[in-house]
Design goal:
Elements lengths: L19 H7 L6 H25 L4 H26 L1 E4 L3 E6 L5 E6 L5 E6 L1 H6 L1 E7 L8 E7 H10 L23 H12 L1 E6 L2 H10 L3 H22 L11 H30 L8 H30 L4 E5 L2 E6 L4 E7 L5 E6 L1 H6 L1 E7 L9 E7 H11 L17 E2 L2 H26 L7 H22 L1 E4 L3 E6 L4 E7 L5 E5 L2 H5 L2 E8 L2 E9 H17 L6
Antiparallel strand pairs: 1-2, 2-3, 4-5, 4-10, 5-6, 7-8, 8-9, 9-10, 11-12, 11-17, 12-13, 14-15, 15-16, 16-17, 18-19, 19-20
Amino acid sequence: MDHLAASCDETGKWNRTSPLSILYYFGLRPGRIFATVRTIFLRVAIPSGPLLYVARDSGLGWKWSILITLSIVFVFNLGRALCKYYSFLWQSTSESISVKSGIFHKAQSDVKWSRVRAVSISRDPLQRRIGLCSVALDTAGSADAEVSIPNIPISVAQELQAKTGEDHGRSQYMPPNISPSIGEDSVEDHVSEIQMEQSREVLFRLSILDLLKSVLCSRGVIASVIGGWVSLGSLYILFRHLFARNSDSNDDGIRDRVVGWITELPHEAMSDLDTVTTWLANSVGLEFLESEPGEATFLAAIAVALTFLFFLTTTFRRTTSNYGFELSDEDSHLVVARGLFTKNQTRIEKRRIQVITYSMTNRERWFGRGTLLFEQSESEEDHSIRVPFVDETTADTIVQQVYDGDIKIPSLHTKARDYHRISIVSFFVELIHRVLIWAPLCLLAVSTVVPYFRQFLWPYALLLPCFFGLASWLKWIKTGYVVNRDFLARRGGVFRRNVKLVQVEKVQTIRMSQNMIQRMRATSKLSLFYLGGDISIPYLNVCKANEYRTNVLERIRTRNISWT
């Protein structure tokens, strides 16, 4: 790795990453257990199915079929990893950073340092052991990182970070000829940490108890449990098709075999469950499994245990990823450090933040907490900051730290009284739209999919307008907006409440539009477009809309920040 020890200022020199990248391209990532398992499943298990099927049909035994299949998959993935490693080159100059990749389809990405909006550095246990890290640089151009460089020395990564203008005071304390020692933190790390501690102010720190609560309240827990059951069912189907298929049907046509196999699959699943319970009753001595109630109770207990296992898996993954979460203020930047096995650090510049969102799920509202999200580009994960399980008062305090100066910032409280309610016309338009369009479509879908419910069509026809009326009313009373000289804020949501805050100086386009109803009511829809999204106020009085529009256009014309 001598070629990586050179300064990243050397012009014209294309560098290759550490040979450890071969392991990463193969799919093995220490510290990311679930990502590794998912990658192995996608790259090994799925291709192995068709190959094993062909090997078995060609008359080979199980031993040779499995050996040949795994060998082919291993050689293919190893060749793929080697090709990606030798084709990946990166170059850094004083003005830009460039990356080359590809064997057959060659590509080169060039990014100016002035366009980089955020830098993300991650280090898993193996990388920390040998002094490496992975760097991702993000601009406003796309939702993914434009430049991602795996497995480079931490000193080189810090030099790259200094070039973005996000860490001007760091690189001057780095001795250029000292490389990280194996098993110990580098001298650069110690010096950098000392210098950054002097200017760092901790804004929020997540305790262990709050971390567990945030995991239980976060979205996607139920979806992950469902995904676990879908994966288990897919594995069973693969097992039934490859290992336990009926050999008597080999002479049938392919279509007849597939249709017959799908038709018999539920019966075969029940038969396999009976076989398993009978085997347990005979081998383990569980006599209660011989009766139907005992067997049903046992299968229900197994289902509950598997569901709990899927839930624990998701909880463990999210707990380790946000372990030690700390949000800090470093002069003109926000910095987040988190992670138990893989250490992640994300830094974004305050002035590049485009929108701030504070949201609360139903479970988070029980604890009076929510999630605070800072977005500075279209990317939502690697180069945005998500602060979990923070209360509304603390969220307001953090936002005050982001926008320095004597400016009035709307509160992020979902029940703040300074929010104006939108016009009542919006409620009636929403109600008519749902009753005249969505209600008939729902009735048609239910009666078509489930013919049994056709006899209850009229009760449903009476209940649906009531339901849509209540939903429209709740949506209307929970929606509000605040517009002042510096900010535009809008809140909404019935079950998942949220407040979106945009600084007027970040607005790039403003639009006023009127439909036929709005022209009759002398109202309009005011839409403000910022980088990566927009925020709208429907049925706003035309005079107020023109006043807000004039104010926004004036602020855009006289703003003293540079768009990069």
